[in-house]
Design a protein that fits this description.
Elements: E1 5-10, H1 14-25, E2 29-35, E3 50-51, H2 54-58, E4 64-67, H3 74-83, E5 87-91, H4 98-108, E6 115-118, H5 125-135, E7 142-152, H6 162-178, E8 182-190, E9 200-207, E10 212-218, E11 220-232, E12 235-240, E13 245-251, H7 259-262, E14 269-274, H8 282-296, H9 309-328, E15 332-333
Parallel strand pairs: 1-2, 1-4, 2-3, 4-5, 5-6, 7-10
Antiparallel strand pairs: 7-11, 8-9, 8-15, 9-10, 11-12, 12-13, 13-14
Helix pairs in contact: 3-4, 4-9, 5-6, 6-9
């Protein structure tokens, strides 16, 4: 049996503490050290050293590190890991700018290092099942993807607005579940909490196959909601990623003798099915996939099962286009379409 991989963790915020918990219990991985730029001592698993600097972590000879520090620090930490020959699982968004994300891609790919982005929604059981069903053609042609992601403002977020923090989840998952890239986006944002960044966004986009995408994301609602609805020619799938439930609403196929309804040539109400699907913690699955990619030693960011840096870069590009659209009050063309890789 091969020796366990040596992993490190950079960042002990809310998400960082969750990473620490999972890493410390992950089969085939030893969490050998944690460093936090903000000097948070809380959340370090028993027996794991809290180090003074990233240099101290690199000196331990790690195979890879999870980067869960603030977005503004992702590039600096990622470049240091690449220079040291270590892989990296970088929390989303990959970086705060397109240029920064591009530098990270160029740092890891030529070295053949395994690096990925923590777009955790790809590992949600409901969305995994939804994507498989779309690939199998169960919905037929996809017409529209609608996401709603709202709730109270999390005080831990200080360096980015709701677009780069929350909406990047929906940007990534909409392209991933459909296998289609964005070609245009139009958005409006507002800021109501007195912070320098936006706290609400409504966006309408178009995918390469012509499907419409709608995102409603905010930090202004006392109601916490995480839903993805995909409508197509055979009905509508609704995924609730808070509960990992997936429901299908079929277009009705029974004829009607009610003359007033027979004149309507649209869809009709049919059967509703809520699927029984296995439910595993998405963060654990994400770590298992990344561990396996590191073990395989895949080159060039094409390792199966993880969100590659190039996919993370595209999500940053779309999020920047969302903000640019809101600033200019116009639709932004995102250029040629690309089909995204599978997870």
């Amino acid at each position: 049996m091969s020796a366990p991989l040596r992993a490190g963790l950079v960042g002990l915020g809310v998400m960082g503490r969750n990473h620490a918990r999972v890493l410390n219990e992950l089969d085939g991985v030893d969490l050998v050290g944690v460093v936090d730029p903000a000097e948070h001592p809380v959340g370090v698993p028993p027996g794991v050293p809290l180090l003074d600097s990233l240099r101290d972590l690199l000196d331990l000879g790690i195979d890879y590190a999870v980067v869960a520090c603030p977005t503004a620090s992702h590039e600096e930490v990622g470049l240091a890991l690449a220079e040291a020959g270590a892989g990296a699982l970088i929390e989303k968004p990959l970086a705060e700018s397109v240029e920064s994300a591009e530098r990270l891609v160029k740092a890891f790919e030529p070295r053949g290092l395994v690096a990925g982005v923590g777009h955790i929604e790809r590992y949600n059981p409901a969305l995994q099942s939804l994507r498989a069903r779309l690939e199998a053609g169960e919905l037929g042609e996809v017409f529209q993807v609608v996401t709603r992601r709202q709730g109270p403002f999390p005080n831990r977020i200080a360096d980015v607005g709701v677009v780069k923090d929350l909406a990047t989840h929906d940007i990534d998952l909409a392209a991933w579940v459909t296998g289609q890239d964005y070609v245009s986006i139009c958005a409006h944002t507002v800021a109501r909490t007195g912070r320098p960044h936006e706290d609400m966004v409504a966006a309408v986009g178009r995918l390469a196959d012509g499907a419409m995408v709608n995102h409603l994301v905010n930090w202004l609602s006392p109601l916490k909601e995480r839903t993805t609805a995909v409508t197509g020619e055979r009905g509508c799938f609704v995924a609730d990623t808070l509960t990992a439930d997936l429901t299908f609403y079929a277009n009705g196929e029974m004829s009607t003798e009610w003359e007033a309804l027979r004149t309507f040539r649209g869809v009709s109400e049919g059967d509703m099915v809520r699927y029984a699907i296995p439910k595993r913690e998405p963060l654990l699955v994400e770590h298992e996939r990344f561990r396996d990619a590191v073990r395989a030693g895949a080159n060039g960011g094409e390792e199966p099962g993880i969100v590659t840096l190039r996919q993370g870069l595209r999500t940053v590009e779309v999020s920047v286009a969302v903000l640019e659209s809101a600033r200019l009050g116009t639709t932004v063309d995102l250029g040629p379409a690309e089909v995204l890789g599978a997870v």
